[in-house]
C-alpha cells in the first residue's frame, strides 16, 4: 500500500527529463519530507516586517513548489537527491525571507547533528543584511526565540540542542578554510566580484551525508564571472543540454525582447505578482522606464529578471536636449549660492569644473568650465574625432600652454570665479587633486574631497536624471557638457544605487556636475541625509 502511494507521488513530481533520469538511477519522491519543511515554516516562523509582521510564514505557491521538489526528492539511500539549487527570480518576490526560512530549517529541523549553516555574501554590509533577516525571523518566533542564541556582533546564531550554528560570511573576510558546511545560502551571486568565496565553500561539505547549497539571486548586469557562469549551467540543466539530476534549477524570467508593458511577461518573472508586488507599482515603474534608458535597463533587470551588460546607457540626446536647453548668463547668477565639482582627470586629458546654482522652483543652473592641453589639441582632434579646436575658438574650452593641462591656470580661473559667484564649496576627487586642493584651500576656498563610489554618487546622479527628465536643468546646452553627458553609461549595484561610468569617450563634465550637485543637495537639505551618511565628505 505504501509502495502504491509512493509511485503515485512519483508520477506527479516527474516533470523533466532530469527527473526521469533520476528515477532510472533509483531516486524516488517522499512527499512527507517536502511537507515537513512546509509545515516547519507555517508552525514556527513569523514575518517580522511590513503588513504581515507577526503573522505565520505561509510559503507562497512558487516557494512551496520549490521546497517540495528540493526536499521531497530522495536518492536510493534516502538522502536528498539535490546537492545544489539555483533559484533566480525578480526582486520583491520574497526571495530574501525564503532564503532565511530555509537557513533556519537547516539549522534547527534538518536532523543534522552539529550542523554548520552559512550564508555567503560579497561584502560585510550584504552579509549583515542576510543575518538581520534570519535573526529577525528567529526572534519573531516565540518557539524559536527561546531555543536560539543570537550574537549580532559576529552575525552568529547558535542552536545548542544539536550543537549547531549559523554564521554569515563575506568575501572580504580572509579565512574560510576548515569549514564543515551542511547548508550554504549564497545571496545575489550575480554581484560576486570573483569566485574565491564560492569555490571555497562549495567543497566544504564533502564530509556531510547530504550537504545542500542554495543560490538565490536576481539577474545580473554582467555576462562574465561566477554569477552568469552558474546561471548558464542552470539554464543548460533546464533545457536538458547537460545531464545532472543532482542540480535543481528554478528560473523565472520574462522574454529578453518583450514589451515592458506586457503584464503577461510581468507574471513570468514575478510569480508573487498581486501578493508581494502590486500591478499598480509595476505599471508605474514600467511607464517611468519608457522615459529613461537607465530606468529601462533597471526595470528589465530587477523587475523582469533579464540579464544585461554592466554598462547601461544613461541619458538620451532627446532627453538631454528637452530637459536642459534653457541657456543661462553667468551675470544673472551673481549672489546666488553655488557649489562646484572639479574633475581634474589626467594632465593629458580634459579637465572639467561645473558650478551648480540652486534656483527657485526646484531648478538648478550650471556654469561649466573646461580645459585641455594647448600643444596637442590638433592631434587630439584627429585622433579622437572631437572638435576641441572649434570649441576652443567658440570659448567653450580653454587650451592651456604646453602638452599637459596647466593646473596654475585652473587655480587662477577658480579664484576669479570665486570673486564673481557666491561660492560655498568646491568638491574634488580626493585621489588626484591633493596639491591643487591644498593650494585652493590656502586661497580661502572651502574644498571638499568627494568619493567616486555609490555612497557619494548615487543620490546626485538620480537627482540629475530627475532634473533632466523634468526640464529643470538650466545651462546644460553647453556643447562640451552635452557631449560628456551623452557619453555616459551607468553602473548599478544590487541595492539599485547608481553612478556614471564612461564607455570610450570623456564624461568629466558630467562627473563634475554630479559632484557639485551632490554638495548642493547636502547643504540645501535635498537628500535628507544625516551627517553620518556623508561623513566621508570632510572639509579640509
Walk me through this protein's architecture:
With 540 residues, the chain is an alpha/beta fold. The protein has three domains: 2-251, Rossmann fold; 263-310, no CATH class; 317-534, Nucleotidyltransferase, domain 5 (2-Layer Sandwich). Helices cover 40% and strands 18% of the residues. It is built from 20 helices and 20 strands. It has helices spanning 2-13, 17-24, 31-44, 61-72, 95-108, 124-140, 142-145, 196-202, 226-238, 263-269, 279-289, 293-303, 317-323, 377-384, 388-394, 407-420, 434-442, 454-470, 479-487, 508-524; strands spanning 28-29, 73-74, 84-88, 116-121, 149-151, 156-159, 164-170, 183-187, 212-217, 247-251, 312-313, 337-343, 351-358, 364-373, 398-400, 422-429, 447-450, 473-474, 488-492, 498-502. The strands form four sheets. Strands 5-6-7-4-8-9-3-10 form an eight-stranded mixed sheet, with helices on both faces. Strands 12, 13, 14, 15, 16, 17 and 18 form a seven-stranded mixed sheet that branches. The chain has a three-stranded antiparallel sheet with strand order 11-19-20. Helix 8 links the parallel strand 8 (183-187) and strand 9 (212-217). Helix 11 (279-289) runs antiparallel to helix 12 (293-303). The longest helix has 17 residues, at 124-140. The chain is elongated. The relative contact order is 0.09.
- Parts with pLDDT < 50 across at least 5 consecutive residues: 1-9, 527-540
Helix/strand/pairing category: alpha/beta
How many structural domains?
Answer: 3
Radius of gyration: 28 Å
Distance between the termini: 81 Å
Could you name the CATH topology of the largest domain?
Rossmann fold
- Bin the strand percentage: 15-25%
Query: Largest sheet, if any?
Result: 8 strands, mixed
Q: How many β-strand runs?
A: 20
Residue share in helix:
40-55%
